[in-house]
Structures are given as structure tokens and as C-alpha cells.
Amino acid sequence: TQTPALPPKADFSGKHLLLVEDNELNMEIAEFLLKKAGITVTTAYNGQEAVDVFRTKAAGTFDVILMDVMMPVMDGLTAAREIHATNRVDAAEIPIFAMTANAFYDDVRQSREAGMVEHLSKPIQEQELLDAIRRHVKR
Question: Which of 29, 63, 66, 72 has its CA 20 to 30 A from that of 39?
Fold first, then answer.
């Protein structure tokens, strides 16, 4: 009898993600899951901070952005639009994932219209998150 093969351990070493979340606990959980997969994480606590961080880092710094939708100062949808509108070679192409407790059709539609390519429900599920990253990040 053969033992079933274990799924390959996610290894995203060398990848860099911008994590945008205003809730301290959610930030810690997501950051833990990402770092465990070998991802370098830069954090921002609201949409405006995310836009500022994205604009001050060199083009190509981030492989993906994980963006909370409901935040103070600037919400995630507005931040996603602003990042994609940044006049820089990687701005239009950077994959941005929505993270939200709202998974209704309308919420998904709104995040898609803002240019977000994935819609992840909170609480974040490790496998769902890693599968989404795998779909959008070049090896």
C-alpha cells in the first residue's frame, strides 16, 4: 500500500507581499501565515498608508497586495484603484486581493470593479490564501 503524498509545502521564499489591514489581530494572523510560507511581508494599517508605501518602494518590490476592504482613512477599494492608477510599470499589473468579512455578490463585484483579482473571506483560511497567491504570483 502506498502512503498518500502530502501536498507540497508552500514555498514562496523570495516573494514580497504588502499586507493592508486595520485590525491588529487579523494583521498578526495573516502575517504569521504568510511568513510561515516564506513570504516577506510589509504592513500598512489603512488604504492611504498602502498607497504611500506602494508609491515609495521601487517598481517590482511587491509580488501581490493583500488588501482589507473596510478601513479608516481610505478604504481598500479606493486604495486599489489609486495603486492601479499609479504611473509606474508594475502598477496596472500588481495582483490585489480583497480581504473582507462581506462575501455577498455585490461585494465581490465591487472589489472586481476596483481591479482586485481575488476576494478572500475573513477569517482568512490558510489554504485558500496560499492557493490564491499561487494562481497570481510568477514562480
Answer: 72
